[in-house]
Amino acid sequence: MSPSHKARIYAYTYQAPHAPELLYHPKLTHLFMFRCAYRVLVMYRRRDLWGLSSLDFDPHRFLDSRVHEYSTPNPLIFLLFNTGLRICQGQQFAYHEALFLVRLLQRFGRIKLVEEAMPPGGRVPKE
């Protein structure tokens, strides 16, 4: 972590996520902000956030009743699109694309790859 110093030219109050009362920051004082790098892969393996099965490959933990146990009380632990100032701008586009793909698969009962229609460099090798 590396601290960065920023001076505020006005006074303000803010509510910290787990503080019971408002916090006051006076005018023209330095605010120490820390940059913190984290790895999404490591965050999904934390037992304190995801329980004892955090090291197991289990994509259903986001679909069944465990969603209410883990993600509902702390929605920021699901980091697929991040949150806050660094939220993914393509989040809604990705959701709409996934919905479109699901509807496409529901409409057609069978999808077949026609290799003759593919360019020569994109074809699957025979061997």
Defining key terms:
two-stranded antiparallel ribbon; two-stranded antiparallel sheet; oxidoreductase activity, acting on paired donors, with incorporation or reduction of molecular oxygen; 127 residues; 14% strand; iron ion binding; monooxygenase activity; 4 strands; alpha+beta
Describe the structure.
The chain has 127 residues and is an alpha+beta fold. The chain folds into two domains: 37 residues, no CATH class; 81 residues, no CATH class. The chain contains four helices and four strands. Strands 1-4 form a two-stranded antiparallel ribbon. A two-stranded antiparallel ribbon has the order 2-3. β2 and β3 form a beta hairpin. The longest helix has 17 residues. The protein is elongated, with a radius of gyration of 23 Å. Its cofactor is heme. This is Cytochrome P450. Belongs to the cytochrome P450 family.
Instruction: Catalogue the unreliable spans.
Output: 1-5
Q: What is the N-to-C order of secondary-structure elements (H for helix, E for strand)?
A: EEEEHHHH
Specify the number of helices.
Answer: 4
Helical fraction: 10-25%
Strand portion, in percent?
A: 5-15%
Radius of gyration: 23 Å
Can you list the strand order of the major beta sheet?
Answer: 1-4
- Class by SSE composition: alpha+beta
Total discrete domains = 2
Overall mean confidence score, pLDDT: 76
Judging from the principal axes of the Cα atoms, what is the shape? Answer: elongated
**How many DSSP-defined strands?**
4
Alpha carbon gap, first and last residue: 50 Å
